[in-house]
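Q: Two folds, back to back.
A: First:
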Amino acid sequence: MTQTGWAMLALLVVVLVWAVAAYNRLVVLRNRIANAFGQIDVQLKRRHDLVPNLVEVARGYLKHEASTLQAVIQARAQAVGAADAARAAPGDAARIGALAQAEGLLGGSLGRLMVLTENYPELKADATMRELSEELTSTENRIGFARQAYNDQALEFNDAARQFPALIVARLFGFGSAPMLRSTQGPAEREVPRVQF
């Protein structure tokens, strides 16, 4: 083999080794995103499990507030459905967006329920309601941290998949962008629930 042939072979080997390394790095980053979503999913399950208990405790005190309780129940059902869909494909931007929207609705309806509990001293004083409220607050914090970790992993993956020359491997093997989670989708969701006496 000629010297040019050896040089071409060496170049081909270097390119092949680089492509394999780039591919493997993208796979690792994609798996980290799936793991980060799994952590969110664990906290969402915890949240979804707390909601029916919270509603049941409040139901006895808030009989005339049935519409608020029904809104919480419906929002929970939508959030559970969206979480199931997102769990099946954590890299699907549409499913992640639907999950974020459903969780935003659930968060809003839970916020309204918590505001209502402020108007009922006997409900606020109920030990079970206090414990459930504290658990829900703790879970909300955990969800926030898990979302942050997910977004950090998605950002790292997206950066790696969009940088040249890894961009070539990403496009060849179908590594699309990872969706980012947003806590709110619009200005209405950013409004703070108001407590009025």
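A: Second:
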Amino acid sequence: MKKSEPKKDKFGLLLGDEDSESKDGSGSGEGESSEPEAEAEEQQVPKKKKVELSLEDLERAGYKSGPSVLLVKPPVDEGPSDWTWGKGRPKGQKDDEGDDRAATRDAVAGVNAAAEAAVKAMAHAAELREAAKAERLEAAAERNKPLSFNQKEKRKRDTGQASRGKSYVEESKRQARDFGVYSGFD
């Protein structure tokens, strides 16, 4: 008794029923068939016929053909390529720029004059900033040099920060005023 090999699909996966083991005789022994005809029928697998497709068959199925690549004409060589920047005109057109160039030149002259004036103004502003910075540095240097006692006192008087020698009585009166006590004896 010859064992039949399991059926496989084109990807190598096993095909068939879950009961295929019991049908080919390799099962548990139940339902084994001893008839050689049954085995012969199982071994004979109908072979698929190779189907020939034609263009007419595909057109009847709804497929349409597009333009053929074989019918496309080859590109015509126009000589060496010119990759320089163009002027926005067709290749054969002459340059007629007399009026346009004059108008553009006049407009640019006005813009150039305004730009020169702006540059001069910026240079003058930079000079003023440098002068102001130098004055601030001189003032800072004068403030940092040591002052005499009389100069310090004069500066305090000018800013309203004059300090007098404080006595115990004046200090106690000031504290009393902070608490709302006014004696009238100042």
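Q: And?
A: Residues 22 and 31 are 7 Å apart (CA to CA).
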